[in-house]
Amino acid sequence: xxxxxxxxxxxxxxxxxxxxxxxxxxxxxxxxxxxxxxxxxxxxxxxxxxxxxxxxxxxxxxxxxxxxxxxxxx
Amino acid sequence: xxxxxxxxxxxxxxxxxxxxxxxxxxxxxxxxxxxxxxxxxxxxxxxxxxxxxxxxxxxxxxxxxxxxxxxxxxxxxxxxxxxxxxxxxxxxxxxxxxxxxxxxxxxxxxxxxxxxxxxxxxxxxxxxxxxxxxxxxxxxxxxxxxxxxxxxxxxxxxxxxxxxxxxxxxxxxxxxxxxxxxxxxxxxxxxxxxxxxxxxxxxxxxxxxxxxxxxxxxxxxxxxxxxxxxxxxxxxxxxxxxxxxxxxx
Amino acid sequence: xxxxxxxxxxxxxxxxxxxxxxxxxxxxxxxxxxxxxxxxxxxxxxxxxxxxxxxxxxxxxxxxxxxxxxxxxxxxxxxxxxxxxxxxxxxxxxxxxxxxxxxxxxxxxxxxxxxxxxxxxxxxxxxxxxxxxxxxxxxxxxxxxxxxxxxxxxxxxxxxxxxxxxxxxxxxxxxxxxxxxxxxxxxxxxxxxxxxxxxxxxxxxxxxxxxxxxxxxxxxxxxxxxxxxxxxxxxxxxxxxxxxxxxxxxxxxxxxxxxxxxxxxxxxxxxxxxxxxxxxxxxxxxxxxxxxxxxxxxxxxxxxxxxxxxxxxxxxxxxxxxxxxxxxxxxxxxxxxxxxxxxxxxxxxxxxxxxxxxxxxxxxxxxxxxxxxxxxxxxxxxxxxxxxxxxxxxxxxxxxxxxxxxxxxxxxxxxxxxxxxxxxxxxxxxxxxxxxxxxxxxxxxxxxxxx
Lengths: 74, 249, 451
Known about the structure:
The complex is a heterotrimer of chains A (about 70), B (about 250) and C (about 450). Chain A is α+β, with helices and mostly antiparallel strands and about 70 residues long. Helix content of chain A is about 20%, strand content about 40%. Chain A has one domain (about 5-75): SH3 type barrels (Roll), CATH 2.30.30.90. The radius of gyration of chain A is 11 Å and the shape is globular. Chain B is α/β, with parallel strands linked by helices and about 250 residues long. Chain B has helices at about 20-30, 75-85, 100-110, 125-130, 135-140, 155-170, 185-200, 205-215, 220-230, 240-249, and strands spanning about 10-15, 45-50, 55-60, 90-95, 115-120, 130-135, 145-150. In chain B, strands 2-3-1-4-5-7 form a 6-stranded mixed sheet, with helices on both faces. In chain B, helix 7 (about 185-200) packs across helix 8 (about 205-215) and helix 7 (about 185-200) packs antiparallel against helix 10 (about 240-250). Chain B starts with 8 loop residues before the first strand and ends with a helix. Mean pLDDT of chain B is about 85; it is low at about 1-5, about 35-45, about 230-235 and about 245-249. Helices cover about 75% and strands about 0% of the residues of chain C. Chain C contains 19 helices and 4 strands. Chains B and C meet through helix 3, strand 6, helix 5 and helix 8 of B and helix 2, strand 1, helix 5 and helix 12 of C.
């Protein structure tokens, strides 16, 4: 399952990344490595981007980025 | 970085965006540089200085970054300053409420230089969120000094200056506990480190450089090579490039 | 779970992933030993976000905050502006007196007192109060951490226009000064989206153009001294700012479909915790860093510019002044877009800094008229009406001011940031084109339907 399918309130963990190059690096750098727990906080008023809690920080990702993150449910 | 030895000490200030790094900078130097609360605020390198026990310290405010692996110009600027600029000490300002992500940068910087001070800032917010940071344990596990601060009220800044001065003048030695990678990665690091030692000698931070070679950071390799070739090490030319090519595959 | 997906992830992990993963697992371990998370911490951040980024309240609050800031600025700036103007005008009388006493020639008084000094006085009395109010208010919001929420709320709109949510931040910065706004575009990582943000930053009303907007809306839309005038003027100003935002979005869209084609790059935006700003330091910093900085720049430009303009108003070529010659040459074209030759001339001469556009205009008009009270809105209104201004002239002047070419400093900054002649030329030509087209359409349609 991809991360963009999650609804606010959901808890999940990262299984892997579909991104390549710099984009992959950036996602890794904010802590989205295999096994990282994430929770979905809220959608922005227009539905996209979505705010996630990642390792104690609040990070907003667009659906395009979230769709690159393969997750498993807790 | 042409500075006279003994004139002043150069201190780099690194950190994630939004850790109050610029507030620490302003509080230490008294410089009125405005700091807003939004990501990526610092885009130019601001410089200021402070005097502690009669000695002068020049503080360089590096761009706020999550990492030093040079995905962006800002990361490259920060990394180059710490690696090529060879500051007398590097202070990493971190957010007490989100240390896990901040430690990513701390560990990366520790690989470049052992002269690192970790400044755990925003302790007031951590308190508000009931996050308790045990700085003794943190310092012990990292092998570097840790200072907790609330930069906007000045709490902990005297101690920070004290530690900066002890480290910059060489009175404090650290033994950073570096990240241990998986055995096969460690084996590769060792192999590349050996090759690097033959090519460029001892004084560059070989473990970190080996990691970048494995990373395939060709830009950095090129720059190191330029430096090496400038230092009568002609046989080394081209070798680094070969190395990076071999290990990238 | 589909098997294919799983397999591709469980296979050999790239080396980079392994490195970062090891760092993070060590970080996790260290935090596990050294940090304790206890129950019952306050979470007003999240509660505040529930409101400020809510689907229902997010946008109204954003608009309301914008309106409140503009309203406080407009209504608060009036009185100190008049006091400053009175003070400077009195001083001007004294200066002229001293010049006479010393037996200096009349041109000396004209060049330095009527030209340089008066322009300076105008710039300070009109610019200082709104800046001294706007910047602290804006800085408060900035320090609180509200701006990234604006980017979060609006990103969907920017995405639709092929640009980056952080462009909202650079636009906010542009309210203070477009040059600062252009520099702040560095926070956008992708070159494509950064260029879009740079090229459109000019459509955000900067502080140098703000006084023009406020003065004209108070005089022509607010109906001076009538009750509720300030509220009406505020609505006009908010409307103008929103128009600017809409133009920004439209131009961004067009750019991302034509010259700057490409797919949106990665978007990662951190929302930092809210932080209670310390009012004292906000005041000191915003006034020292921003107000004084922008004011100094304006003053440095206003002094020589004032002298040059006085010369243009007082040197005759044939039977007319230099300025009149220029204005008459521009008149036919200016009339098409709802301005007159003098207004267009003022915009051109005001290229070094937008702040001096109105002073130039006043001086140009005064070369064949008298304004008794320097800087007073009432007198300014009468002067303009005397020279044939209507509601439409005011509207077109405001639109042109908002949309036209960026000031010299901003253009210089764009050249430095883009390191490209091509983009700098475009940064000049594109807004000018938009300004002419919009003013033409507005003027002609008002002419068609209302006259």
